[in-house]
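Hi R.,

Here's the chain you asked about this morning:
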Amino acid sequence: MRFRFVHCHGSGNDFPLIDARGVALSDETWASVARALADREACVGGDGLLLLCDGAGEAAFAMRMFNSDGSEAETCLNGLRCVARAGFEALGIDEAVVGLKASVATAARAGEVAPGVYGVRETAGPASLDTAAWPIAGVERLVEARVPGLDSARLFTAVAMPNPHLVTFVETVDEAELVRTGEACQVAAWMPNRANVSFVEVRSAGLFVRTFERGVGLTDSCGSAMAASTYAACLTGRALWNRELVVFNRGGLVRAQAGEDAMVTITGNATWEYAGEVDVDLDTEVASGLIVTERFPDEIAAWERVRG
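And here is the predicted structure, written out as tokens:
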């Protein structure tokens, strides 16, 4: 099959994005497309696959996100900003309710995050502390506590955004330890739906978040992890409710704030890198025949200035 797509990123979290409105493919087929297009050893590459889908009810349009391993995430807030931009441009609007896998979010054009950087403001939630719904066996709530069954002395806060996150605050991120912890959470029988794991440094300028993402691995950016970390920071007294702070990651930054109503608002970029067409062999899950139809060097350069 041949697909048109835009390669884009939100805070360095990069994806091919397909306008899938009116396209009837099975979940298994989309999972195969995701594995083919997100393969960084092939011609496209990314942290996963984003789909702009038809809306229903109050939602003007919807988003689906498949990880690079083909699993489907409940949400992806960096990806949501990119899908929102595609939806805004397709429908000629500048704000919308967006359907997610198991919930909805609101998104609005936010003006430029920085000169030349397309900005989107998104609000998602409510964040949930009900770990019985993940589930984590034998645990109903986890705030600044050890995770039963996990070989780590660190204290974690478990937050669903609505995808599951384990957040711990550290003096300095130890990436080797993060990877070990993240990998353990991918295979734990006591947590069958797995979890994203974030190590978070509290800095004078805000939060620095490093994440091992379920279905992806160690990633330069994860929007829902930044949202979960912001909420956990407020919940544990490390940040103030309803006060915007800067959240950094390897891919860049966003501005985030959490409310006591458990809603989290993030303002960040939705950057187009290039548009293209590509063939996907669904049997072998291999992408080939990439043709780049348009490039966006000004947007790329504008974001690089933000990253410094």
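One quick note: The longest helix spans residues 77-91.

Cheers,
M.
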